[in-house]
Structure prediction request, 332 residues.
Amino acid sequence: MRFPLRLNLDLSNYIMRNKFRGIEQFPLVLMLEPTHLCNLSCSGCGRIREYADTLSLEMSLDECLGSVDECPAPVVTITGGEPLLYSHVYDLIEGVLARKKHIYFCTNGILLEESLPRMRPHPNFTLNIHMDGMEATHNRILEHSDAFAIAVAGIRAAKKAGFRVWTNTTIFNETDLREIDELFTTLAGIGVDGFLVAPGFDYEAVGEKLFLERREIERKFRDVFEMSKRHRILSTPMYMRFLMGDKKLECTPWGNPTRNPMGWKAPCYLITDTHYATYREMMEKTQWEKYGVGKDERCAQCMMHCGFEPSVVRELGKNWRDMWEMIVWNLR
Prediction:
């Protein structure tokens, strides 16, 4: 299976329970950012710019685990910043696993190898390492001369220790997809279990012209779709068809709610209009109908997975062909 069996079962049961109860707005993934502190300054990263004045802040362990308890999402993405810089990171991992949640742990890989002895492989735990190209490209984007070599060493060590490892690649305006094909071949050769691929989003806080507009996304992701026939790309086929311009989807901004040291970020992972003190307050007070393509100009070029992969879940069941395509894709 493309996704772990336990993750498939837990997600399916969660989705079916919500649909059976008639609940329309439910989260799939909690984006937990215990700190925005980072050991890199990557081109294209909006977080370290948007939260430049509060980088020294971090959530307490109780706040982190309380947020996991507040939000019913079965998956928790622990991200940042660089989460390995968070003071209580290992206790946080254990606390989330103890709650029988699934973890995607997002890291740039710089501190990964030295951190592995304090973590343990678990069926619900996935390491997700940021990889944006082969060595020269990746080092330039991350603005670190050894970032690629350090990350690859960390991946090798993680696989040797028995961890599940995915990588996350952002497609920018200048991305050469032949290089990304080479990257995936290289990473598969050292044991990487799957590849997440998404178009970059034009953060207001980032001045560089790195990002793709909708037509460019559609053109580039036709090539990515062809790549998915050779590599274990984890983006769902319906989302891929949306990225290629062959499928229409409306954004689901509540699908991946974000909690960070400032509170519950609204309306979504990418756009910040305010922060709320509680998950419930964020869900009840955010005017969701105001956001999305054609509603807010900041959403015009966005095709990010955090808003549209949850939309795939909302669409499933409406068309038997989509359902069958998803089943075959997951089993292939």
